[in-house]
Amino acid sequence: MDRERVSRLQSMMAKEGIDVLLCRLPENVLYATGYWPVIGASLAIVPANGDATLIMPYSELDYAATGWVTDKRTFRFINMQALANPTAQTEALLRDLWAEKNYGNATVGYEGNFELVAGNNVAAEARVVTEATINALKQALPQTRFVDATNVIKQSRIVKSQEEIAQIRITNEVASMGYDAAREMIAAGVGEAEIAGAVEGRIYGRGVGYKNVTRSRGYCFVMSGVNSVNSWRPFCVSTDKRLAWGEPVLVELDAMTNGYFNDLTRTFFIGTPDAKAKSIFDAVQEAVNTVIAA
Q1: Domains of the chain, CATH where assigned
Q2: Helix axes of 86-101 and 131-140: crossing angle, nearest 10 degrees
């Protein structure tokens, strides 16, 4: 168990008068239990005192073994007779847990205001907490008082434990594999999207299996020459543009391993940088060093 972060979370819950915390977003389930849900249908129940409980799809039990929660209660997400409805399927399990743990009319914290969420394992199918989710929880536990625990979760998460730092370092190491692929491919005549695809493939192919990484993905964007000027925008896009001699090549990379993400940017140059390119680099480097020293 990562006692450092669990103790911090429970201490902040107690300070805010939250008896039990319910987490559905994969990033928060990971934070509270050490297990990163695959399809985002799991629910972590964290008391201010005592050990957490997981309500989760039966099909994910092997993934939950990476965490520290021993009390796991499962349901079948796949049902050929009806559409999957994890919220409805967890209601009975939640009521049973409430009675068993004697949570009674506890004050319950929920994820009420996460406008920006991390992608889950199945990046194209994100599950988020909605009004329907909260209403279903309130219906299942009518005696409880619900409060928005967003700030408690965020304030606890903002300070990283030693275990989290180690996991983020692994993500950075895997990202460096992607940058190796970029360095190998960057040359005049090669397309931006080709390089981005090679970087993502390297992270997926070599990341899985590295230092106990079971899930690894990369999201890479390559912008060269005149396209790199657009990197001021809060997003990057790779195009079919071919790289040319004497151009800077910006490589934006968001990598993930086992639910831990990073966000890196590196700039390459095809050929020898001219005076203008060196001047731009020096200005950026000075700004970065100033921030680090502050």
Answers
A1: 3-157 (3.40.350.10), 162-293 (3.90.230.10)
A2: 40
> Token pair of 176, please?
């460096």
pLDDT tens string, the chain, 294 residues long: the values are 999 999 999 999 999 999 999 999 999 999 999 999 999 999 999 999 999 999 999 999 999 999 999 999 999 887 666 666 777 788 999 999 999 999 989 999 999 999 999 988 887 788 889 898 899 999 999 999 999 999 999 999 999 999 999 999 999 999 999 999 999 999 999 999 999 999 999 999 999 999 999 999 999 999 999 999 999 899 999 999 999 999 999 999 999 999 999 999 999 999 999 998 899 889 999 999 999 998
Got the DSSP string for 70-116? -EEEEE-S--TTS---HHHHHHHHHHHHHHHHT-TT-EEEE----SS
pTM to 2 decimals?
0.92
User: What would the two tokens of residue 275 be?
Assistant: 């005076």
C-alpha span between 119 and 40 (Å, rounded)? 10
For the chain, the residue count is 294
Q: Which H or E run contains 277?
A: helix 275-293
